[in-house]
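pasting for the record
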Amino acid sequence: MASDAQPDENEQKLVKQRYPEEEAIMTGIVSLSRQEGRQERRQEGRLEGEAKMLARMLERRFGPLNNQQLERIRSADEDTLWAWSDRVFQADSADEVLDSQS
């Protein structure tokens, strides 16, 4: 078997027969890695959605946002986005929302 080639069906069966415990461990590792990847993508998607919603709320209340404001929103963590969204309706400007620390 070449080092960069995928094992064929016979080679896969042979590995499973000779190394059943190792094969089970590797299968579990691959499965866990896939689950973690899906979870990370879902979290990133939620964060992106929260950022878009905050930007929309700010634009509806205060008008168009500049590139610096949009970048701050896109790069913010979830706790910061939530804190900013809590301030949208009490603030007098988008800068006042984004400059607040809590």
